[in-house]
């Protein structure tokens, strides 16, 4: 039976994104579960196809789907959770995992098989030893370059085993000078700042939510980015502000208006498609020029979690297990939700991926022995670090505050939230 669409009574609560409810099947004995996720249209289509496969194999289960963009997803999930009406299955992000686990929203996933996952990946879905999330795949934040714009500017791609942050700024300025594009779009915050700190043995926070960086180190970062804006390598403040947090298609690099960007590898295929050109991932520059100090890290791209309020915990866990462990789901998903966490399933998709995805996968495999320690899970009660870092960065780039004052504010805001 074909999938049909209807409107949900939750639609009035949606402030952004779309809510699509689809269902198949009938009969009084049919179990109905709601499944929610965020992502671009391509992910929506892929997920609907996977769900159709699951329903074909499980005719007693009817899946109702809800999808939206990133911001709309979390706005709605917060409303639903407060009303004890969270979806039975929900896509989860590491920055929210602890919050939703500790407020009682999430179901313990004791029946989902993660035995074929890397132990670190499997453990990343646990909070205090209890599994609340199953990883969809692994991801790494990289620097992405457009060879086409580099060639147009007459600039060689950097040797990413030895380039420094100063090299990055100089290359970006040269590209801006020689093309109509910016050398780089603005940094992905707060991850860009945290990468800078990690290379100095620091983090924004530790696992307890305590401040784990020196304000002076953060001030150096704000000053560095401010200098890159002033030299023309990065866009002016107004452009940086307008493009903060947008999706790959709307980003400067997605519009072929920037030669470099910081992005998670799961979005490179989408970014390249939007830009209409091949893109290559690079290691992050370092302070010393030694790639072994880049402190790049592998993380779960995203997760599947279940609702503790579900009336159908067995079906919820069976559905999640299908999503993360079945070859059928992986063959449709490919790398959209990361390189599959299930390492056996991962091998089955490699012959199916396209040229752009192959470039990314080969790069990730090359990095395998270089990763630093994983980032600690986001602690409960902190302010939104992305929004906070963007706001303070804007204040610096617009000249409303100094790098030192912005760093002090960041330090004190995190410190206050942790108390």
Entry summary:
The chain contains 16 helices and twelve strands.
Topology (SSEs and partners):
Layout: E1 4-6, E2 21-23, E3 31-38, H1 41-57, E4 61-68, H2 70-82, E5 89-92, H3 94-102, H4 119-123, E6 126-127, E7 130-131, E8 134-145, H5 147-153, H6 165-178, H7 191-198, H8 215-230, H9 237-242, E9 260-264, H10 268-275, E10 280-282, E11 298-306, H11 313-325, H12 327-333, E12 339-340, H13 343-349, H14 355-367, H15 385-397, H16 403-418
Parallel strand pairs: 3-4, 3-5
Antiparallel strand pairs: 1-2, 5-11, 6-7, 8-9, 8-10, 8-11, 8-12
Index terms:
single chain; 419 residues; alpha+beta; eight-stranded mixed sheet; 16 helices; globular
Structure description:
- This protein is α+β, with helices and mostly antiparallel strands.
- It is built from 16 helices and twelve strands.
- The chain has helices at residues 41-57, 70-82, 94-102, 119-123, 147-153, 165-178, 191-198, 215-230, 237-242, 268-275, 313-325, 327-333, 343-349, 355-367, 385-397, 403-418; strands at residues 4-6, 21-23, 31-38, 61-68, 89-92, 126-127, 130-131, 134-145, 260-264, 280-282, 298-306, 339-340.
- Strands 3, 4, 5, 8, 9, 10, 11 and 12 form an eight-stranded mixed beta sheet that branches. Strands 1-2 form a two-stranded antiparallel sheet.
- A hairpin with a 2-residue loop joins strand 6 and strand 7.
- Helix 1 packs antiparallel against helix 12 and helix 15 (385-397) runs antiparallel to helix 16 (403-418).
- The longest helix has 17 residues, at 41-57.
- The N and C termini lie far apart (55 Å).
